[in-house]
Amino acid sequence: MRPRIFQTHAVQALASRSLRGYFESPAAYVALFAFYLLTGYFFCAPLFFVKQASLRPLADFAPLLLVFLAPALTMGLIAEELKSGSFENLATLPLEDWDIVLGKYLGFAGVHLLCVGGMLFYALILAFCVQPIGALDWGETFGTLLALAGTGLVFGAAGLFASSLGKNQIVAFVTAFLICFVLFLLGKAAPMLPGSLATFADYAGIDSHIDNLAKGVLDSRDLLYFASLIFAFLYLAVQRLGARRF
Amino acid sequence: MILAQNLTKRFGERVAVDHVCFDIPQGQVVGFLGPNGAGKTTTMRLLTAYLPTDEGRAELAGIDVVQDPLAARRCLGYLPEDNPLIEDLEVTDYLHFTGRLRGLTDERRRAERVKSVVRSCGLRREVGSLVGELSKGYRQRLGLAAAILHDPKILILDEPTSGLDPNQVQEVRDLIGELRAEKTVLLSTHILSEVTATCDRVIIINSGKIVADGTPSQLAGNLSDKNRLHVELKGPAQEVETALSALRGALFLRREGAGSFVLESPADIDLREQVFKIAVERRWPILGLRQEKLSLEEIFKALTQNHAS
User: Fold this and answer.
1) What is the pTM of this model?
2) Domain that holds residue B47
3) Chain A residues near residue B101 by CB distance under 8 angstroms
4) Helix orientation angle between A8-24 and B91-101, rounded to the nearest 10 degrees
5) Count of structural domains within chain B
């Protein structure tokens, strides 16, 4: 039989369970409330005080919010199972490690994309506000939303990897926060670094990729950056689970 | 059906499971006994491929658990020691979730299986309850229901009755009793009466090594180098005592009451026939004649204490 990396039915079952799990506890509601409260403020402030009808300011602020939010939402995904012992149940079912990691990750991705998807409402408000004087730059708007979606997905993958490291959720949160914060800071520190180090920091940091997308420039290098980081963290999580079992 | 060949697991310097070998044929219910820390749970975790083996190999239904863990696990229903469950799911939702992970993707078939295990595990009363609200007994039943949901050939149950009250213990035992007709079962416990009540065979492990393997009576036979006979005869006590002491191979032990005596003899000598003959010859009515066998408790103590020391 051809070896499979994952089993669709198992990933679906775990993803829907993981997504439901968020909404059966206060986690998703608190995350959504915090996300919309803070992004709402950073959306309204430029619009009403500076008269800037754009989602761009959110691309500067929301990644910092996600540095906290994504680790908070992912810290328990595997650590909690390890602590309660239910991981033994999961690990003795006929599941691949990728099934577990992808299933858990897609549950988080559902909540995160709901957060970002809800920001379309901001775009509609903007479109309505600028209607008398012109059209909204939809390229920039969708680019910003895509950048925020990608950023959260990268940070969530880092969070899931951190959660696979052990039973302690606090350790998982702090580890994920540090990874995400380094990715967030690298781009900001790039201008202060010399020559090739600056180029490296600019590419490795998440800032420049968010900037490009938020300008409405859809560059495959940026998409590849997000995709490769997500894959790398999920791969590390799978390796970690494998190391626990074999 | 369940094969362990030289299974070995080390945690640092400590050898938790030391070259464990056994072969459990189809349809057998085997009790896996041992004191705390003897290596029962680790052996079970090796058999389910939850832990890697350091040496040796294990097979479930002829499938090597390391080479093809997924195929091996498809034949297996496993109830871990602490039976960790998802607390915030409703009972049948939990079973449906487990069923989906087990590959029961056809909704109608899954619903039928869920209905069937809810009935066979006596969970009907708890349908609609959250898992977190269940009593310990019902949690064990739910764990068992999840383990047999996909109708596996093999069941590995780690302390299925631990922490239950006597009624719940009996209920879980009855359930295992019902499963014995169609499944091969390996269950660990340190409740010895449970083994006598439910198992065809006993494997005793101590300090990671198998110290006994057989039916309870085989183990008693192997272990005991003496027969002990309780005799109750109606006759003059002194005369009876003298006559019994004079039996071939008998070692008179003690008088227990007015006409009650305890004798011992080497394992190959059965004193009952000689006692019967004397009683007939002397016309002493026999009120009682009982050959004592070692209980499982005594076997367990003898094996685990000897090896520990």
Assistant:
1) 0.83
2) 2-215
3) 10, 13-14, 90, 93, 95
4) 150
5) 2
